[in-house]
Write a structure and sequence with these properties.
The structure is a single chain. The chain has 220 residues and is mainly α. Helix 8 crosses helix 9. The chain is 76% helix and 0% strand.
């Protein structure tokens, strides 16, 4: 008899847990921000504060990799598009966005655009970006908008001194050159803003991939 009661209790508890899980999954689908890390680099506007707050409440105890990644990307975009007017507020928002990105990557690490998002936030805070940028290369391919944003981050900071990243970044530069009509002015702007090591990387790559554009770039 006791065994039967125990089995019924276990069965009831299991059913409750499964029902709660299904309910949370359905609720997560409703409030999950329709915003991916790649959207951050293509100029998409992040969700409003109310939707972010609703998603944040669920993300705080969720293990849904997609929900966490979308929420983290939206948090980062919100910080980058709508920063606080005071330095203390910006630092706090950056830290919160980085925390959301790191939490998402712990659950679902194979997200190259989200690794670059982390590197972007770190660059804004004046922190080292090389490890995050390197992970963005090693975890998969990215759309052209993300690849070009990666070029900007690499060439404007210390990441351009890393030999492995320099080799990996050449493919991003070549991808931008393959869409030269769109990215020529952006590549020139990246060159103007680049560190000496970043300028060298851009010149070395374009010299082989597009000598005519290399000549144009050297004028700046």
């Amino acid at each position: 008899m006791n065994r039967m009661i125990l089995l019924r209790v276990i069965g009831t508890l299991t059913a409750i847990v499964l029902a709660l899980h299904a309910g949370m999954a359905s609720y997560g689908d409703l409030i999950r921000p329709n915003f991916r890390a790649s959207d951050l680099f293509s100029g998409e506007i992040p969700p409003d504060k109310a939707k972010l707050a609703a998603a944040g409440g669920l993300a705080s105890f969720s293990w849904d990799g997609e929900l966490l990644a979308n929420y983290a990307a939206a948090m980062a975009a919100d910080f980058l598009h709508r920063p606080s007017t005071d330095a203390g507020g910006r630092a706090s928002e950056n830290k919160a966005a980085q925390g959301a990105v790191v939490a998402a990557l712990k659950v679902s690490p194979i997200r190259p655009a989200l690794w670059l998002t982390l590197g972007t936030l770190q660059a804004q805070a004046g922190e080292a970006v090389t490890p995050a940028v390197k992970m963005s290369y090693l975890t998969g391919s990215v759309p052209i908008d993300v690849a070009f944003s990666r070029v900007q981050i690499v060439t404007s900071g210390a990441a351009a001194t890393d030999e492995e990243i320099k080799l990996l970044a050449q493919s991003d530069i070549r991808s931008a050159l393959a869409n030269r009509s769109r990215y020529e002015p952006l590549l020139i702007a990246a060159y103007v803003q680049a560190t000496p090591q970043g300028k060298s990387l851009l010149l070395e790559t374009t010299k082989v991939a597009d000598p005519k554009f290399n000549e144009i770039m050297r004028r700046y």
